[in-house]
Give the backbone structure.
Amino acid sequence: MAEPLIAITALRHTYLPGTPMQTDALRDVDFTLHAGEVVALVGPSGAGKSTLAHHMNGLLRPAVTGRVRVLGQDTASRSCDVRALRRQVGLVFQHPHQQMLEQLVGDDIAYGPAQLGLDGAALRERVHEAMEAVGLPFERYVDRQTFALSGGEMRRVALAGVLALRPRVLVMDEATTGLDPAGKEQVLQVVHRLHAERGIGIVIISNDMDEVAGIADRVVVLFQGRTVADGPTREILGPGLDLPAHGLLRPTAGQIVDRLAGGGLPIDRSAITLAEAEEAVWQAIRP
Amino acid sequence: MSHPLIEIENLSYVYESQGADPVRALDDVSAIIDDGSYLAIVGPNGSGKSTLAKCLNGLLRPTSGQVRVMGLDTRDPAQQLAIRSKVAVAFQNPDNQFVATTVEEEVAFGPENLGVPHPELERRVRSALVDTDLADRGSDNPRLLSAGEKSRLAVAGLLAMRPRCLVLDESTAMLDPVSRARMRELLGRLRHDGLTIVLITHYMDEAADAERILVLDRGRLVLQGRPDEVFSQEEHLRAVGLTQPPARAISSGLIRRGLVLEPALTADGLVKALLVRQEALHG
């Protein structure tokens, strides 16, 4: 098997070491992302999800304990080309307005590739391609003011800005939080397409277990700075794992079948999507 | 008999900014929020929900039309303080709102500014912390709280001012699943105690908890009614980019398969209906 895109082992991360404010955000974390995978990273707030995301493109690097290999490079190593990593591992954050650098949509998306030395027709082509990938028609949006965009549009501009660098890995940190249902669906479809058509490795950090159930191949659970579970989505979100013990809940579908089972209805509890819950209920009560 | 707490009449709000076209965020919105009621406001991003929240306690004054809180006009500067003590608004990022170094001081900050005297102040702080499950965090620094605790702290600070109405502008959006469930329980208790609640949310299952739902789209009020009425307008909701609550999606599917069932709106409702049905069939 080829080397994973991201391989993190026994990682510890301490903020403000040696001060009274010292906190261990990560204590013992293992995480891998293979080519072509969509992996969801979940955990209650404070579990260390964002800190881990920052290790995925060298924004943070291991200080003492742990090993982080991203696209074949050891990020703690002096010879690590962090600039190259940041280009190849795109991070999309929860507050897109913090990522907006320019007043016009087209300029904002062009910012990254321009830094790489692209200009003229090649740059325009790159921006065009990124905008189409996220469903923002080029002619309609290229000259729009970034501050006047809706939340969903802003999120897609931020995503396009990252995609314009043609990354091999995309890390989305709560990138759909606060979006309306249609906006969320649009962003997830973009992710799906990027994965299917370009084989980009994708890490999705989300508090929305329904969203995770719908899109991830594999789920990694962080709790108090440790990896406490890692497995296929169906296994992690299914009835076998005690998610509440890790500060989480099953997806809505799973909660409903669990409660029906708890109420005495003999029902298959494996459902993680609404369609599966409907089928399970139907099988349990059909006339 | 219900009586209105907030009356919104032909409310329009226009954002003016230099060098850009004015943006009409709210366009001729009229609605009544009854005292003691639970109202949800839903709509796509950019539909005017947050602007409406800010109009409810006079943080923004109508460009045209009127908002009256217990008869007081929000355009009247002399009524600002009275209105803000009645209608409290909690926003999405509570971090930006914290001013004190302990949780207790943070909760006391609002009522202290209103001039609430001492024994009463302490009573209020204590009861607000108990109500929001923060009683054991009183001496902690607000910055050390988890995201879920922070949003409950923001609510505690508002409760200590004893408002008649609590407006929550996507206060659950950033929360993890357990914290979101706890916030939902808290709102249920506050509603039981008679507080008027206005909840702005993208989660349709949360909206289904309310007695009434307003649907905004591009600044206009396009639909309003009880949750069962609003969510039965499937086409209309889809057209504005909204979905069904998960429990309703499941029950609609079961009904299409031929099951005789009232469409359930919440997981509670669906589980109860199915268990009751099973009980009736099999005793």
User: Anything to note?
Assistant: Residues 4-241 of chain B form a domain with the Rossmann fold fold (CATH 3.40.50.300).
